[in-house]
Amino acid sequence: MNNLILKKALIPYLPLAVITFAVTSFSNASFASDITHSVRSDIEQAGSTENYFELGLMHGQGSGPSFGGKGNNFNFSGDGDWSDLSVIINGSYSWNNIFIENYSESGHGVVFGYNAFNNDNWSFDITATTEWLQKESFENNGRYGFLNHQSYSKQFTIGGRLIGYFGNNVVQFAVNQDATGDHNGTTASVQIGRNWQVRNWNFHGIVGVEYASAKLNDFYVGVSEERAEFLSGFNESFIAYDADASVSFSTELGVTYPISEDWVFRATSRAATISDELTDSPYFQDKDSVATSFRTSLSYVF
User: Fold this and answer.
1) Could you give the CA distance from residue 147 to residue 220 in angstroms, rounded to a whole number?
2) pTM to 2 decimals?
3) How many C-beta atoms lie closer than 10 Å to residue 96's C-beta?
4) 3-state secondary structure 137-149
5) Are 96 and 113 in contact (CB under 8 A)?
6) Which of 52, 117, 119, 270 is the most buried (most CB within 10 A)?
7) Any idea where the domains of the chain sit in the sequence?
8) Using CA atoms, how far apart are residues 45 and 256, in angstroms rounded to an integer?
9) Predicted confidence (pLDDT) per residue in 130-184, tens digit
10) What Cα–Cα distance (Å) separates residue 170 from each residue in 22, 165, 249?
11) Helices and strands (H and E) in the chain: how many
């Protein structure tokens, strides 16, 4: 089995209207894989899909800004370094343009979707994303830690993604909106990736930029006057803080190698910027502006 998986989402500070216009500028239909899977799998055209399931182990380690302090719903600290070993579940299944997918290397959870249209180069999906099987340690998804709200609803967003295929190059635009009513926050992202095949080694690279709205950031890292007064009893450095919208950039380099027809090896290094709009919050202990990671995995494809 030569084909494999990848993923990652990032986004430019483009107005949502621009991305929406781009989404509506193409037409036709068929399910296409997320950019992370497309690049790792060397998929080169819209509508390419595969129904498959794989199970494996992933080891990761990295560093980034850290949180620290004590208080109600706030009792943890650390130097920003982490290391973990986890089970990963990857796979996708489609039926009549309806699909479900999960790619552990992407960092987000399970995605349900409907392919609205496609042509030779473009595909547009309407998506709903959950926190099921989500990897919290990923640079962008883990930026909020366990801050501020322990009683909020489980993550559930709705949105759309537009994916374009041009030979070995893939571009993905995505917009996601909170559907729980907890914060009504929005993220928008643009990613560009490509792969290079060297014998059985599939090398890939992805760069991206992601916008996160003020509502989303403030929900997690904002500190109200009342909460600042309470937390100052544990740490006098706590002051009220209103988080603004943020933009982050990321880059990823990796390789996928099919050891046999059933076993697949992957290795990926990533770096992502962490905006001052986040780390200026008093919740952050170490205010590093960059998060990095390196992951390896071994999976069995059923």
Assistant:
1) 6
2) 0.82
3) 8
4) CCCCCCCCCCCCC
5) no
6) 270
7) 16-301
8) 19
9) 988 877 667 665 566 555 555 677 889 999 999 999 988 999 999 999 999 999 9
10) 15, 5, 17
11) 5, 14
